[in-house]
């Protein structure tokens, strides 16, 4: 399990090593064909900042070679905001006195129909909070079954599950699972996640092993930028990615670096990441791993997403609602966080085409997996 590997990697020593990197380390990393985590640390370090343009060109080149000019489009659907966790940065946290919604089957289908009117989305991401008693695996399973006639690629972003529960969902059409570790800083993890199942660091971080063991086709990883030193956190994620690739080599992987946005939780981020730094991280990840999908959500602005669409990003959401039932049933409900790109999916498509990119709505079908 990855928690045992992580025990042996010192957070503080990693931080020191990143900030001690020099231009020689950066140039060595840029000249290599196969990069290790040590090289990745050089590319995200302050020492790499003067190399941003070189990194951008390499990132663009590797992305074109592996993904062509395509951008895979997806849409999230929150099916509940009910949550027993207390994440201090989230508007859905248990103590927040907001109206809680668990979409009924009819409401879920209404959302699917409303989404289909926005654009020809085929990649659906079902999102929940964590309330296994009221909206557990059975509820997610039913939502997947209902989604099958509408969408060809089904992914979930829900609480970590047991391996046999992932297997059960695969039988109902599940193709991918996204889970954010939020932070790999075990010493501080409980400050942000004080109560509930999410407070159990090992359970969450080893959830990725359980996904791999269950044979999930695609695993999405991410850290929430704003909690801890982002350079150290993404270094731990790079270790995690390499570990998973070694142990579950049939699985595909995606990464995501969401920057914290305002929510009803009123949590002020501990660290800020500039656009320039997010660009550096994106280029570094592409140079580190040419196959990994790099995903940007509507947390980022339209202008920034447009800029990055030709430089390394391969997956994007569009016209996202971050509240349950936001497309049809409850458009005024409280959102989990404020989005930053308010364009319609059609406008995103137009903009991507103007940039010479080809938005792809359908890039997966269950028949591929037979
Ligand atoms: S981040 Fe997720 S688990 Fe945490 S309170 Fe929000 S919805 Fe619940």
UniProtKB/TrEMBL annotation:
Domain Radical SAM core: 69-297
Pfam families linked: BATS, Radical_SAM
Entry cofactors: [4Fe-4S] cluster
PROSITE patterns reported in the protein's UniProt record: RADICAL_SAM (PS51918)
Cited CDD domains: Radical_SAM
Swiss-Prot/TrEMBL keywords: 4Fe-4S, Iron, Iron-sulfur, Metal-binding, S-adenosyl-L-methionine
Domain of life: Bacteria
UniProt entry tagged with the keyword Transcription: no
Entry-linked InterPro entries: Aldolase_TIM, BATS_dom, rSAM, rSAM_sf, ThiH, ThiH/NoCL/HydG-like
Record-linked SUPFAM superfamilies: Radical SAM enzymes
Name listed for the protein in its UniProt record: Thiamine biosynthesis protein ThiH
Species annotation: Bacteroides sedimenti
Gene that produces this protein: thiH_1
């Amino acid at each position: 399990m990855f928690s045992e590997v992580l025990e042996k990697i010192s957070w503080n020593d990693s931080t020191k090593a990143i900030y001690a990197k020099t231009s020689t380390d950066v140039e060595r990393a840029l000249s290599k064909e196969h990069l290790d985590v040590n090289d990745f640390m050089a590319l995200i370090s302050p020492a790499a900042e003067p190399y941003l343009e070189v990194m951008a060109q390499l990132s663009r080149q590797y992305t074109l070679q592996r993904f062509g000019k395509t951008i895979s489009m997806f849409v999230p659907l929150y099916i509940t905001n009910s949550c027993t966790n207390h994440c201090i940065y989230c508007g859905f946290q248990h103590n927040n006195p907001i109206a809680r919604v668990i979409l009924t089957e009819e409401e879920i289908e209404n959302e699917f129909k409303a989404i289909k009117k926005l654009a020809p989305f085929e990649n659906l991401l079902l999102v929940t909070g964590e309330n296994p008693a009221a909206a557990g695996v059975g509820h997610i399973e039913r939502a997947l079954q209902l989604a099958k006639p509408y969408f060809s690629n089904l992914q979930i972003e829900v609480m970590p599950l047991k391996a046999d529960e992932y297997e059960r969902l695969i039988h109902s059409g599940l193709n991918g699972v996204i889970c954010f570790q939020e932070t790999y800083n075990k010493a501080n993890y409980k400050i942000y996640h004080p109560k509930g199942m999410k407070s159990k660091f090992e359970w969450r971080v080893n959830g990725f092993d359980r996904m791999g063991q269950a044979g999930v086709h695609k695993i999405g990883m991410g850290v929430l930028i704003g909690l801890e030193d982002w350079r150290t956190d993404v270094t731990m994620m790079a270790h995690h990615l390499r570990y998973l690739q070694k142990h579950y080599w049939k699985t595909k992987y995606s990464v995501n670096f969401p920057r914290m946005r305002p929510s009803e939780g009123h949590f002020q981020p501990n660290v800020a990441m500039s656009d320039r730094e997010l660009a550096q991280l994106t280029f570094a990840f592409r140079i580190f791993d040419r196959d990994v999908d790099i995903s940007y959500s509507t947390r980022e602005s339209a202008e920034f997403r447009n800029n990055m669409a030709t430089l390394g990003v391969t997956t994007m959401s569009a016209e996202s609602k971050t509240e349950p039932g936001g497309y049809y049933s409850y458009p005024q409900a409280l959102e989990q966080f404020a989005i930053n790109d308010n364009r319609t999916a059609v406008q995103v498509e137009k903009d991507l085409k103007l940039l010479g990119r080809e938005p792809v709505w359908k890039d997966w079908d269950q028949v591929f997996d037979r």
